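INTERNAL AUDIT FORM
Audit reference: QA-55
Scope: verify that the stored structure record matches its stored sequence.
Auditor: D.O.
Record contents follow.
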Amino acid sequence: MSIKAAVVGATGYAGAELVRLLLSHPEVEIAAISSVSFENKPLSEVYPAFLDFTSLVCENQREVVEKSDVVFACLPHGLSEELAEQCAAQDKIFIDLGADFRLENESDYAEWYDGSFTNPELHAGAVYGLPELFRDFIKDKKIIANPGCYPTSVALGLYPALKKGLIDTDGIIIDAKSGVTGAGRGLTLNTHYPECNEAFSPYKVASHRHTPEIEQTLSKAAGRKIKVTFVPHLLPVNRGILSTVYGRIKLGVSAEKVRDAYHFYYENEPFVRILPEGTTANLKNVKYTNLCDISLHIDRRTGTLIVVSAIDNMVKGAAGQAIQNMNILFGLPEEAGLRLIPPSF
């Protein structure tokens, strides 16, 4: 099998990461890439790291769909629906790394993204592509909403505790930190080197657009509507997300019961590692991989479960998870092209 893949928005960070990973995938041929900013330029001219590894040239977006079996879209919100329509018309698989298909309720999308669903039928046929939680719903779909990076780390970190009813659904606090690649390749003041180097601060406090996506997934786990307090921070590193999540443990729930629940849900998941007791999740141990490391801690004084979840925002939080979804759709092992070992230092 040779899957023909196209990457739209290949010169952004997520798009370039997709190309990097797909070039090593044993069952994939990259048929085309596109970029509005660098049309007709070789990818190696934009990212010299690709020199001699690929001769791909950025094409016009409209030209790439017919060349491919699967289209990955790495676009800002509001730009994916038209491309999804083109893919649907040609019966091509569409995996969206943007936000356009993540939220099920149009009212939430209107509130947080100031947009609307121009084609509600497309949205009705889409699925939220977090494989560890929704694998059975993914395999027969043609439009996949690849989850956001913060929501991936939080959902994987909290799902077992909520699904098993181990913590209260009220008062959940999410303290998350991201590397600067999460802001994209476009220049902004807060990601300018002199501003973010040797600095550390929260941003978009209680107003980040990933909030409704996080609440949507956690509500499904709990079986009731959940609201959370979510505060993201910008770390002066290139890659990674570390989410520290706090929830009040219910009466009678022991540390052993918590650990058993997490092992039950993730024991057969190749990309989720429940760390040994006494160790803590660390960004460096997931760098360049599709892994999610989870460490579990209990504050017995306050009856609080503390879950620490670490991912690489560019891989498990974006490109790697998109490839994992593609592998499911084409009946391949989920680890295909993603058997990556993190560096030790």
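Auditor finding: record pair retrieved intact. The chain has two domains: 3-146+316-329, 150-312.
Action required: none
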